[in-house]
Specification:
Elements lengths: L6 H8 L5 H21 L2 E9 L1 H11 L2 E7 L1 E8 H10 L7 E4 L12 H12 L22 H10 L7 H10 L4 E5 L4 H9 L4 E5 L2 H13 L1
Parallel strand pairs: 5-6
Antiparallel strand pairs: 1-3, 1-4, 2-3
Helix pairs in contact: 1-2, 2-5, 3-4, 5-6
Length: 222
Amino acid sequence: AAGLSLGELTAHAAAGTFDFENGLKLVQKRGSFMDEACGATTGGMAAMIGADENAVRQLADAEDVDVANINSPGQVVVSGELAKVEGAVAVAKEHGIRRATMLNVAGAYHSRLMQSAYEKLGAALLEVQMQIPQFPVISNVTGREVKTLPEIRQTLQDQVTSTVRWVDCMERLVNLGCDLFIELGPGGVLAGLLKRTRKDVDVVSVSDVESVRACAERLGKV
């Protein structure tokens, strides 16, 4: 299982790493800590479209911003101080990036500006009783499955200030033998990202009663 950003907590809850109640508490605390960090900083994020990861990393280094998300081939997000992100957008084409667009977000998620949230979340994670997941859960930070409780806590903490390596997460699940992916939640954004990453895999989006029934019927035929 894998979940993008906040969804990583959902993946762990599904795998039994912690129970539903503790999962909700972590979601609330994580959101509160990150909101506090947003209020204490002036941050922003921008999507780099048609972008090679190395080119975006060079741009990020030059403009002093962080690479927040590697969502799919050709879609990388940067994050940091608002003025610096705007500066990165302004010079993106000089780095061979086809299009750069500011995102409508409250702050600089998955960047160094979330350091205060990182510290508070680390303490909160220590208070939650956990167990080894019942099936593999892939970390956003490493793109690999987590296997020990200290590793789970550390990667969930690291995630708020680190790059979400979503492409690596999807590739790892394919390498583990996953050939049917089910996206749970409204819309089909993650399904679209996966199709751009691996055109050879099957993916289904489930967001309402009708799609749940269709998915269940399909699984019955697998």
